[in-house]
Every structure is written in C-alpha cells, then in structure tokens.
C-alpha cells in the first residue's frame, strides 16, 4: 500500500523528492501518512478534495483485496 500511495503522489507533484509515506499500524487498521511539500498540497488534494478522494478510493480498493483497512492522511512536510 505504501508503494502505491508513493507512486501516485510522485506522479502528481512538482517535487517528487519531497514525497514521503509513513506506515503506522493503528487499532482500526493501517494508517498511511502522505507528506508532500507545501506548494504541492493543492495538487494532491485537488479542487474540492477530488484528487485526495480518488487516491483514498484506489487505496481502499487495493486494501480490500488484502482484507485490510487502510486510511490515507495527507500532511505537508512542514508539520
């Protein structure tokens, strides 16, 4: 899942070297923290959150194949 999110995010942003994905095992399932440069936040989130929703939908579909629950959180590098 981590690689999937990383590949998608790197293809969207201007600074692919600033893309980092952290995996955290939570109580409910796997949490993927996607960190991007502040100037790339708009590209990853999209208008009205459409791109972020699409990323979450793709990851959720991939997670269903592996019987996992995965949550994607988008965070800028500065936080």
Helix-strand blueprint:
Blueprint: H1 2-12, E1 20-25, E2 30-36, H2 41-45, H3 50-65, E3 70-76
Parallel strand pairs: 2-3
Antiparallel strand pairs: 1-2
Written description of the protein model:
The structure is a single chain. This protein is of the alpha+beta class and 79 residues long. The protein has one domain (1-74): GMP Synthetase, Chain A, domain 3 (2-Layer Sandwich). Helix content is 41%, strand content 25%. The chain is built from three helices and three strands, in the order αββααβ. Strands 1-2-3 form a three-stranded mixed beta sheet. A hairpin with a 4-residue loop joins β1 and β2 (30-36). It is globular and about 35 Å long. The model has no long low-confidence stretch (mean pLDDT 92).
CATH superfamily: K homology (KH) domain
> What's the CATH topology label?
GMP Synthetase, Chain A, domain 3
Which percent band covers the strand fraction? 25-35%
* H/I helix tally: 3
Count of structural domains: 1
Q: Note the overall shape.
A: globular
Question: Major sheet: size, sense and barrel closure?
Answer: 3 strands, mixed
| Main β-sheet, spatial strand arrangement | 1-2-3
- Mean pLDDT over all positions: 92
* Share of helical residues: 40-55%
List SSEs in N-to-C order: HEEHHE
Instruction: Give Rg in angstroms.
Output: 12 Å
Main CATH class? Alpha Beta
Please give the CATH architecture. Answer: 2-Layer Sandwich
How far is the first residue's CA from the last residue's CA?
Answer: 23 Å
Q: Based on DSSP secondary structure assignment, what is the total number of beta strands? A: 3
Helix- and strand-based class?
A: alpha+beta
Q: Which stretches are poorly predicted, pLDDT < 50 over at least 5 residues?
A: none
Subunit structure: Forms a complex with KhpB.
Keywords: Cell shape, Cell wall biogenesis/degradation, Chaperone, Cytoplasm, RNA-binding
Protein name: RNA-binding protein KhpA
Subcellular location: Cytoplasm
């Amino acid at each position: 899942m981590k690689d999937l999110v990383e590949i998608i995010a790197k293809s969207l942003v201007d600074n692919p070297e600033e893309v980092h994905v952290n995996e955290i095992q939570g109580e409910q399932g796997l949490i993927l923290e996607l960190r991007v440069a502040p100037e790339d936040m708009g590209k990853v989130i999209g208008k009205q959150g459409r791109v972020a929703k699409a990323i979450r939908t793709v990851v959720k579909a991939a997670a269903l194949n592996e019987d996992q629950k995965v949550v994607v959180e988008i965070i800028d590098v500065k936080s």
